[in-house]
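USER:
Class, as today's exercise, take the chain set out below, and explain how the chain folds.
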Amino acid sequence: MLNIYERRNKYTPRSVTQEKIDAVLEEIKKRGHRKQASWTHGISERHFKSMVEMGEFDLENDNPDTMCAKMVQKLNNIELSDIQDCMHKIYSSRKGHKGCQWTLEKMYPRQFGNDSLLRELSEKFADLEKTIKGERSSEEGKG
């Protein structure tokens, strides 16, 4: 499987225009699911996911001017707005808002799911393992 950088150079979204991306993001903003929103505008789910990965890669590597990076920024703004709306409803209700709590758990399981703390700990452990392996390989290269 190609890593994101190799895919970035090999696979560029030729058939996707800014107008299509804006239409998909507008559907998502109206509470549509990514899969149906992208398919409705002629973009496959896999293609959309690949574009999101490329955009995240571009943002991580200080390249925010690409079409994919701008799409990811807009998508994150939409998701942030949804999360803030639900959190406001939860905190403004005396007993909490069960519907919003359920929505956050299902739509954003990584941040709000039952095992979100376990996932976060697992990710930190994986990062630590990568760091340790990187230090070992650099020590072996010196010695």
About this structure: Residues 4-96 form one domain. The first helix runs from residue 4 to 10. The mean pLDDT is 83. The CA atoms of residues 20 and 42 lie 8 Å apart.
